[in-house]
Every structure is written in C-alpha cells, then in structure tokens.
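Please annotate this fold before class:
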Amino acid sequence: MNPKSGSIPCYSSQNLICELCSVDGKHWEDLDVPQEKVYAVGAKPSSGRLYAGTRPAHIYVTESIETSETTSPEWSELDKFQELPSRNKWRLPRHDNLAQVRDIHRDPTDPNRIIAGVEVGGVHVSNDGGRIWIERTDGVDEHIHELHVAGPEEYVAATGHGLYRTNDAGRTWMRLDKDVPQSYFRSVFSIGEDTYASGALSNSSTWDDDDASPVLFACRDGSIEPISIPNPDETVTGMTSVDGSLLVATHQGNLFTKKPGSWDNVGKFSVPGSLTGRYTPITSYCG
C-alpha cells in the first residue's frame, strides 16, 4: 500500500501479467512499468517508493505511484542490476532462455537494503537502495521460486532444488530439507518463529499425478516437520497471515486457514489454464 495515497499496488504472475493500483479495490489504474511482464512488486513504505521486477529480469523504481488522466508514474531502471557477474547466465531453455525477478523485498532493519530473488539467477542484495548490487548466490539454488524475509537479515528461499535459510543477509545459507524426499519448493511464509514451506517431488506438471506427494512443512529451530492440510493431494502455491493465522492457497483453487488443532475451508478461487508455472501470490489487508 502507498502510505501517502492509500493506493494498493497489485500484480499477478504467469497467467495474467499486469501492474495496477487501486484505492478501493474496484477501480484500477495501469502503472505503466517500462517492461510489460511484471512478476514482483516491492515497496519502501516510509517513502512511497515502489520497485517492480520483470521478465526479462530487470528492476525498476518509482518514487510515487500517483496517477492522473494525463500522467503516469516516472520509472527508472536500477541498471547496475544488469552488471552482476552472473547476469549472462540467468536463463533456462524451457523459460525461453530468459529469467524473471520473482521477489523484491526490503530488510526490516535497514530501509536501504533491497533483496531480489531471480529465477533462474539466485539471490542478490543492494545496501544502498539499488545503486550497487552484491551476489548472494553461494550456497543457495539459483532457481528461486519465492524469497521470503522472515526477519532482520533472515531470508528463506523456496527453490527448484531445496529450501534454504540465511541469517546473515545471504552471506551463508543453510539447507533445511535434507531429511525429506520433497525437494521442489514453491511457496514459503513465516509467522512469528514458525516458517511454512510447500514442497513436492517435482514441478507443477506432475502435481495431479497419483504419486505427486505434496507436503506443507513447518520449520523451527532448524527442524522441518510435515503438517496435514484438508486436501493432502493439493500443492500449496501461496500463503499469507490473517489475524495471526496461516492462510494457504492450493493449486486446485482452495483456501484454508489454520486454527489451533484444525483447518477451516474459507473459499475457492478460479484456476484457469494449465498447471505448469502456477503461483498464487496472496495477501491480506484491513483498511
């Protein structure tokens, strides 16, 4: 949310690519990001600054998302992001030899520290608001599906080959899923000291197979334990918190909220198109 205007930036990934904002959830305006395909949005709440990550992998910033009939936000590219040593390797044949910025976050204790997760490209950190970037890819898989900020300098990466945590802003990483067969992680979120991550045996093209074996895990103090959900054959593709309780979205379009000792089915959403590449970014907002 833009703290100055009350507008809510919104983006949708894979199935619908857009960059919109709204003050009431009913009327939406195009923010005219220079690249058409926006995969990630991050904000600096104290200033109204907004970051947009795209496919191909670029990052743009605007100081305000105020719009009118005659003006659009002024975007500038953080071009030093393109000068990272590994930049020419950010590609995958099945992704049309392109990469996308999956997440952009701000470290909660340093308003100038920006963290970006790239698929395929790893994790990268800027300590000056995006002017200079540092690679933080050693020890973490480069197939970043979701990068979550769990606390100061504490980030968790759900990747195509494992679940990883850092407690020092990416200087070192620890793999959390060594003792479970699921190694393809799609979504990650934390509430307090608990981190939740959704894993599967393979990519989304297999999720409707009888032997897909998706699992929602809870992680604390370096341990990882499976927790049951009402529909155990569905892969969790998005998570958020509502009044301190975990809310999950699945690849079949179900929404469940976790209560002490039970789950509630709180709704459904449409899931058009193929399974491949499905993500469900969700959030809660009370205004």
Observations:
- Residues 1-18 have pLDDT under 50 and may be disordered.
- Residues 1 and 8 are 4 Å apart (CA to CA).
- The longest strand covers residues 110-119.
- DSSP finds no helices and 23 strands in the chain.
